What we know:
- The protein has helices at residues 2-19, 21-31, 43-53, 58-63, 67-75, 124-136, 146-149, 228-239, 273-276, 281-285, 301-312, and strands spanning 84-88, 103-107, 114-117, 155-159, 169-176, 179-187, 194-200, 206-208, 245-251, 256-262.
- The chain is α+β, with helices and mostly antiparallel strands.
- The chain has three domains: 2-56 and 291-312, no CATH class; 81-159, no CATH class; 169-266, D-amino Acid Aminotransferase, Chain A, domain 1, CATH 3.30.470.
Amino acid sequence: MKYLDRALLAAVTLWCWIRYLPITLRTLRRTRRLPCAGCPVTGNDKFFWRKIFDHDPRFVIVSDKLASKEWVAARVPGLSIASVRWTGTDPCDIPDTLLRGDTVFKANHGCGTNHMVRKGNHNRAEIEQLGHQWMLQTHGRKHYEWGYLGIPRQLFLEEMIAPDTGGPDELKIYTFGERVERLIHISGRFQDMRANVWYFDDSGAPIRSEERAAVAPPSPTLFLPVDINQALAIARKLGQEFDHVRVDFLWDGQRLWFGELTLYNQAGHFPGTLGTSKSSPLARQWNLSNSHFFRRSVSGWRKLYRDALQRQLP
């Protein structure tokens, strides 16, 4: 059985490389190695596997920046969530009155679609052009981030959090089921940005790492928010429903706000050895047996493959 399993896993890996050649080549260029899709062991391999095999219907909901608000509110009723002031598909329909104060113009189906309007200073033509461009984009196609592909596209205006402070702090919490393994704390997004990476000991206490975050250099004077324990508790509550999800919060100096849920970190990539080493803490904590793929009904070669993969997983 062991040799048959290995042969089947190797055949599935080869099938993935051929069937999904564009993202295979992108992964190769980015990581300098081919993804082991049939029996993933590294963090990056597991992202590649998730894109191809784990099509959990909830992925579409939590990847949708509008639908995820309702999804999270139903699970954490007391959590602050930025209010939505307008939704639509045509930016020309945005009322001028909604652009006179502080607001954020966004698209619900992509990443990097944020446009700040501060104190009413805006260019209407620029906003309309951005909106039309966003509505034409199919985010997730390039890297095959499956959860984005089925989102009904919408534009929206959202309440701006902490507009007078240079922006709120950000907390990006990496969860694996109920376990929190990594946290990135970002401050000064629109000023002098700094970011610290934190891990956790066996008791759950945070330990600041010497690791440099991808977005900014560290700061020894940047301390975690006083509500960090609340953020971690909420992250565990939301994370328990998935094998892996990144839970993001905003901190305005007084209270936590929901940010977003991220299923494909950096388009399906962990930085450095976190993504390429099978002994990295993120790879070790990510248990694919807890994924939707192992709960849904499958047949044919996929069932044979799932059974073989299950026997190989720790």
